[in-house]
Amino acid sequence: MVKLDDALELLLPDAEPALARRARDMVQFLRLLVADGRGEPASRVGVDFEVARLDLEGGARRELRTALLEIVRQHLAHATGCDSFAWCGAPRVELQACWTLVTETRAELSWMPALPAPGEAACAVAGRALAAAERLESEGDEIELWRARLARAQSGRRAGEEAFRRGLAALLAGPALGTASAAAWIAGLCECLLDRGAVREARALLLEQRDRVASDARLCQLLCWCKLLLGDEEGARALQGGRRAPDAPLPGPLHALRAQRPAWLGLLPQRFVESARVAPRATASCERSEIGASVCVLFELVSTGELRASRIDAAPGLRAGLESWLAGQRFAPQDPGSLQQRLVLEQRTLVAHRGDEPALAETLGCGATLALALVPLATPRGELAGWVHFEFEHHLVPREERLCAFARALSTRRLATVEDQPAGVRPRLRDGEQSLFAGLVERLALRGPQRRWWGFRVHEGRPTLAAEGGDSTLSAPDAPAGQALLGRVLLAGGHLGFAEPDPALSLRQGSQSGIALALRFGGRVAGILVVESQRRADLSWPGGTEREGQLVQAAASLRLEAFRERHRERHGADVWFDLESPDFLSFSARLFRAAESECSVLFAGPSGSGKTVLARWLHHESGRARAELLELRPAALASDSAWKTALARARGATLLLESVERLDLAAQERVLRWLESRRGARASDSCPRLLATTSTTAAGLGLALDAALTRQLERVRFDLPGLRARRFEIPALAHAILARLAVEEGVRAPALDDSALALLWRQSWEGNLGELEGTLQRALLFATGPVLSAADFDRLAARFGRTLVRRLPSRHPLRSDLAAALRSTLLGTGRVNKTRAAAYLGWDPDTLVARLADLGLDGSSTFPDSTWDAPPVAAPRGEGSVGVAMEEAAAEGPEPGP
Prior knowledge:
The chain is an alpha/beta fold. Among the domains are: about 290-410, GAF domain (Beta-Lactamase, 2-Layer Sandwich); about 430-560, Beta-Lactamase (2-Layer Sandwich); about 575-720, Rossmann fold (3-Layer(aba) Sandwich); about 750-890, no CATH class. The protein is about 45% helix and about 10% strand. It contains 34 helices and 17 strands. The strands form four sheets. The protein has a five-stranded antiparallel sheet, sandwiched between helices. The chain has a five-stranded antiparallel sheet with strand order 7-6-10-9-8. Strands 12-13-14-11-15 form a five-stranded parallel sheet, sandwiched between helices. A hairpin with a 2-residue loop joins strand 6 and strand 7. Mean pLDDT is about 80; it is low at about 40-45, about 415-430, about 480 and about 870-898.
C-alpha cells in the first residue's frame, strides 16, 4: 500500500507548501469520512472525525482570512505610495493567488468581495476586503490595527494618527499586552508622525517605549531614522550597530537624502521601490505643522519690484528675531551665491541641508534649522511672482511635489483683511502681539497637544482678538470676543478656569477644560490669555510669584506694543524700552497711575533721555488719548495771542511744554495764571492738561523759574536717568536702533559683534540716545561688511575726530558700573559671566574679581538699584570726561584688547 505522503509527492511534485498541506488535510479528512461511514472505531484512524472536520473548516477559514488581509496589505501599500513611511509588512502571498481563493469561495459565501472594478480606488478595495475578514471572526485587536491603517490611507496622516493613538492607548490600558501587537501600533503611530514631519514627537514616543524598541527591528529602524533626521548621526550609527534591517523599503524623502548626504548611505541601505505617486492631499489649513516645518513665509514680489512677506507662520520660539530677519530678507536675492539669488535666476525648487558648516545662512532659525527649502511661485505668464520659504528643524523635507502643492495652496488662499470681516469677528492680527502671546504660552508651559489658545488685547474695556495658536487640527471660535468667559475675567480682574465641559464659558465648542488668565498691570487688565483643551481637567493655574510676574510683564508689553503702533502712525518712528528691567517696570506702573489723574506732570532728565517719548506714552494711557497731544516750544508762548491760540487748539487735549526752564518771565506768568485758573477743573472739562519737560536738575529749575510755577509743575515729577546710568540697556537698545535705522535707510542691518557691544557699552554718552543713534547711523552708512566690530567704530571715530573710551577706570570704579557689567553679560541660565563682564569694562578678569572683593560684591546676583525715577548721582572726578578716563587708563598699565 502506497503511503499518503508518497502518493501526494507523486501527484503534486512541485506544489507550494501551503497547497501540499491543504492536500494532506483533505486526503486525511476523506479517509476519516470513509472510516466513519463503515463504522470503524476511531482508534484505527488515530483521530476523531468531528475534530478533523472542525480543524479542516478552521484551516480553510484561516487561509481565507490570510488571503483577505493580504489583499488589504497590498492595496494599502499601493494607496499610500512610495513617499510615505507607512509599512504594513512585506507581501507574503501573490495577490493573484489571494483573489483566486477568495473568488472560489463566493459560491459558498456570497458576501466575499468581488474582483476590483475598473478604476476602483485601492482604499475602496482594501475596505471591502477588510470588512469580509471581520465577518470571518478575526481577532479583534488585529482587525482594529488594520482599520487604523485603512484610516491613514483613506483620510490622511492626521486621521491615521488619531486612530493609532486611540488604539495604542486602549492596548496599553488593557490587562494583557503582546509585545508584537504593541510594536505594530507604536510603529503605525510613528509612521504617521514622520509622514507629517513631526520627527521630534516620533523620537520621543520611541524613547518612551525603549524596551520594545530594543526587541523589535522595525521600531529600531524608525528610531535610527529619527536620530539621523535630527542630525544625530553618531547616535544613529550606534543604534544600527550590526543589526539586520527589516525588509521595509526606503521612503521617498529618505531616498532623496541619500543623494544629498553620501555619508549616510550606510545608514540608509534599504531599497527604494518606485510606485505610483499619490497626489498630495489637500488640507483644510495651510499650517506649517502639516509638513513639519518650523518656519513658513510667503514672499511676494509687488509691482514696485520689492519683496514683501504677505503670510508668516513661525514657531513661537523663533518670533523674537522675526522683524530684523524679514528686513534682511529684502536683500537676500542680491547676495552672491545665496539660495534666494539662485531661486530668482533658476526659478526652480531648491533644497539645502546643513552639512559641516555651523548653520545655514539666510534662515530665521539659525542653528536650529537643519534644512531650508524655497519653492518659486509663477504668474500665469510664467514670470516669478514670489516664493515660499520653508525651514525645518530636521532633515525630513517633503518631496518636491508635496512642497509645490502646499505652496500653491498657500498662495491662492485668500488672505482676509479687517474690511473683509464682519464687525467684531476677526480683526487683523499684528505680528508683535502674536509673538508676545506665543512667547507667553511657551514660558508658562501651556502649549501641548489637543490644546488651542487665544490672546486678546483690551482697549477701552473691550477685548479684541490679537493672537491665536496651538493644535492646528482644532478649529478656532467663530466670534471669540464678547463671550461670557472674557466678560467675567474683565469684571473680576482675575483668573478663571473650568475643569469640566462648560458651554457657557468655553470659546471653542467641544472644549473639555480651560483657563483664562488676566494680564493686569498698572491697575488695569491689558489683555487676556485663554487656553482650552480637548481633555478634562487638563489645565490649571498653579500661581506663584514667578508666573504672576510673567503675566505682569506681558501686560506691560501689551500696553507698550499699543503705544509703539500709535507712535509709529503719528510720528513715523519706533520706540524701545527695556520692560525686562524690574526698575523700569515699576517706573511704568507709576507712569500709568499718573496718567489716570489730571494734575500736571514734569519729566526731568538730560537731553536725549526720552522725556518727550515718555510724555507721549503718558498721554496715550490717559483718558485724553483720543485727543491730540500739542507739543510746544518756549517760542510758542512769546505773546498772549500765541498762548491763547495754543490753548484753543488744545481744548480737551493735552499740552506738552518742552524745556520749561527756558521760558522768559512773561511766559512764566502766563502759564502760572492759567494753572491757577484751572483749579478744580474736572477731567471731562475742555480745559487742557499740562505736561512739561526740563533738562535741568531740581535745584536748577528752582533758579530758572518762579517758585510758585515750580511748585505747580512739580506736583508729579519723574526724574529720568541718562544713558550712562542705564548701561545694561545699551546692548539691546543698540540692536533695536540699528534695526530701525536700517529699515528707514532701506539697507540690510549689519550685526554687532561682542567687541562692538562692549565698546558701545563703556562710552559715557553725554548726548544720551541722540548721540548713540548718531553713532549707529554713521556706522550703518559706512559699514563695509555684514558685521560691525570695535575696530569699525574705532575707524569711524578717527574719521570724525572723536575719541572713544577704551576702558573704564579701575582704581575707583562705580559700584553701579560693576553691577551693570555683570547684568549686561548674564548667561541664558541667569548666571554671571565674569570674563565677558571684564571685557565690557575693558579690564582683565583678575581686576574685576579684585574690585568685586573690594566693594564686597560676590558677583552672583548684584544688580544696580533702581536707576529710573531716581535723582541723578554725581560722577566721580573725571568720570564723565573721556580725556581723564584715558589718562587714568594709561597710568594703570597696558590696555587689553577688545
